[in-house]
Amino acid sequence: xxxxxxxxxxxxxxxxxxxxxxxxxxxxxxxxxxxxxxxxxxxxxxxxxxxxxxxxxxxxxxxxxxxxxxxxxxxxxxxxxxxxxxxxxxxxxxxxxxxxxxxxxxxxxxxxxxxxxxxxxxxxxxxxxxxxxxxxxxxxxxxxxxxxxxxxxxxxxxxxxxxxxxxxxxxxxxxxxxxxxxxxxxxxxxxxxxxxxxxxxxxxxxxxxxxxxxxxxxxxxxxxxxxxxxxxxxxxxxxxxxxxxxxxxxxxxxxxxxxxxxxxxxxxxxxxxxxxxxxxxxxxxxxxxxxxxxxxxxxxxxxxxxxxxxxxxxxxxxxxxxxxxxxxxxxxxxxxxxxxxxxxxxxxxxxxxxxxxxxxxxxxxxxxxxxxxxxxxxxxxxxxxxxxxxxxxxxxxxxxxxxxx
Length: 405
What we know:
The protein is an alpha/beta fold. It has helices spanning 4-8, 36-48, 59-79, 93-108, 127-136, 153-159, 182-191, 211-214, 239-242, 279-295, 297-316, 343-352, 365-370, 387-404; strands at residues 17-18, 21-22, 24-25, 87-90, 114-118, 139-143, 164-170, 195-199, 218-222, 233-237, 255-259, 262-265, 321-324, 333-338, 355-356, 358-360, 376-380.
């Protein structure tokens, strides 16, 4: 049984008040709240088991190293990667994608090549490739989404040819909530000879991710969206691809030998983890995975689906609200505008009612342009969202309409 009230008790932040009203936190897509157990365990690590990792020949360092590498194993199992060496700890998903851009893209893309980026992408899966494009001169082609926010597969297929070397595609849109057909995208791309870079930030908290089943070449996500700490992310890459990539960050721990005549790189995953790693953050991410596993991802998905269906139903009933993204297969991310007032005005009214949502372009300006908008209001659900949160959100939108209409 998914006991939502007991689950909510695991999150201290949900007991807070804002403007003297109980907090309704609907900004999980930006960053998830943290379970008390994760916060307490991070504190324990800092107080009792903290040291630098990998080379310290003393008990405290050995314990820290064990915890750090155990976290890597937890990530591997969580996304069903084949080997621990395929799990690279980074500063976040943005850093993960930049690692692929500079370590793979800079060395494998040339003037006559093409890459495909979907117009629904977060800026983090657009801008790094534009920076590399300036250096290498390849062509960027743009895949389209339809009016419901679904990937236009026919158009996508028309872009594929033997010049395409990479496809960049989010697993779930951070604006539309659309769950994109990644497995099919990978299959089609591989047939054309292209690799696939998946931004998994918005999928990883909501649904089971199996990178072997998807057959993606790279998969990136951030720890703070998976109920873990900020400052840590994950880059999954197929071992045979990572082994042929040159690191773009140099420093300690990522080398095998160093001489002024030249250096050689460490084995995976160390070659992509230059410098002192995000030790406690990575361990904290492992604890967050433990927490999610204790609830069961299938249970989380089912719970969020029920609330998402309720929110979609009620939001569609409200006069003047225009939803952005109405795909039949959605995660708990809802963006909308109103014919009565600017999104920031709505957000301010909602804030006064104790409801936390996000406004802006959500780092997806091309996607907003596709839907003829500059900004939107976004409400996003988490494993701790309950029916009362949805009801209070809908009531606050109606109240805002009365004020602005």
